[in-house]
Amino acid sequence: MSVSTEEDHKLFDQLPNNVQGSIYSDFLFKKFLSKFIKFFTFPNLECKQQHAYFGWQHDNYMNFMIYFLSLLEPIRLTKGQILFTELENVNMVVFTIDGSIDIGYEINK
């Protein structure tokens, strides 16, 4: 939500790449990225070193991550709130940072 308007994007694009990456990785999404880092760790197969991975210092990775993170929409649920009902089409991925989600179903109501 911090970079949501066209004016915000223009201002953000004027910042150096390392500052843009730092805003997203070290400030806005630090908690999210620390919890889900394994989903965003990609091996760099072009690198001759073993165990080389793409990171925020790589422009393509940084651009991908900024784009992906900008699409996330935070929601806050209360205890007992139903997120989806049975047989409902779901067209999103849910990442849980705090708390837990129970998954279940009812038989005969």
What does this structure look like?
- There is one protein chain.
- This protein is an all-alpha fold and 109 residues long.
- The protein has a domain of 66 residues.
- 37% of the residues lie in helices and 0% in strands.
- The protein has 4 helices and no strands.
- 6% of the residues are buried.
- The model has no long low-confidence stretch (mean pLDDT 87).
Please describe the structure with a list of short key phrases separated by commas or semicolons:
single chain, mainly alpha, 4 helices, 109 residues
Order of helices and strands: HHHH
Give the integer mean of the pLDDT values: 87
Strand content: under 5%
Structural class: mainly alpha
Low-pLDDT windows of residues: none
Instruction: Tell me the distance between the termini.
Output: 40 Å
Short précis:
The chain is an all-alpha fold and 109 residues long.
SSE inventory with pairings:
Blueprint: H1 6-13, H2 17-28, H3 30-36, H4 59-71
Helix pairs in contact: 2-4
